[in-house]
Fold this protein.
Amino acid sequence: MGAFEAVILTIITASTPLLLAAIGELVTERSGVLNLGVEGMMIMGAVCGFAAAYTSQSAMLGVAAGLIAGVGMSLLFAFLTQTLMTSQVATGLSLTLLGLGLSGLIGEAFTGLPGIKLAALDIPFLSDIPFIGPILFGHDILVYASLAITAGAAYVLFRTRLGLIITAVGGNHHSAHALGYNVIRVRYGCIAFGGGCSGLAGAYLSLAYTPQWIENMSSGRGWIALALVVFSTWLPGRVLIGAYLFGAVWIMGLYVQALGVAIPAQLLSSLPYLVTIVALIIISGNKTLTKVNTPACIGQPFAPER
């Protein structure tokens, strides 16, 4: 039972950054914007979060710094793509390259230093319940925040006027503009939300998952988060399921290595990416479902009439 509990706890820990980054990108894409810079925003959130936490000796300040770093990177993307009308694909890729390079420069002074771990919440009595207590009530604040953000995003997108506006902007920005909605402003907000979530995901990596700074520690998670959005067909509930599924695959590969199974370590390390490819192939086979939920204007620039 103890080993099973440890596996579940590790899966939850591995899935949280994927869920945070993916739900942020889902909202961004729902507004019609394709931001391929998730990896860059994550790694900047990781290095800024670690640097702030180490300097201030406060993990919560590190979380705030990671959030701000992600928002800052996303606003740079928003300015380039929504104001200057650059290519969203090229700008997103450039943002990733910028984040990877800049994080290496910033993090050089923090390499090898002991990290400040984000403490788990201690809920009296509930945390002490055998098996159930540690699994449900023994996590840090970002684990619960990821679930709350996912539920909040689902509620806003499908139960509120703001969600209808975001969907309208992503579905037909010209019609939304004709109805009087500020398309650029809505997209700026969604891009900033996505950047903040990616920054939190990065901060989680350096403050909770592995409380230290390691260059390129995001290890492609930003790309998996992008794939999760397509895997979920732009539905928040499916993002939650997909994130925990991919997190389980990631962790089970590590456990198989630890058990000494005679499988090449390189193959086990590539399992999350192989599963990503297989999942995308399966999803692409259901063209009806994909067509219904795909924002029609995703990746398309919008220039308001002046």
Q: What stands out?
A: Residues 2-293 form a domain with the ABC transporter involved in vitamin B12 uptake, BtuC fold (CATH 1.10.3470). The chain has one domain: 2-293.
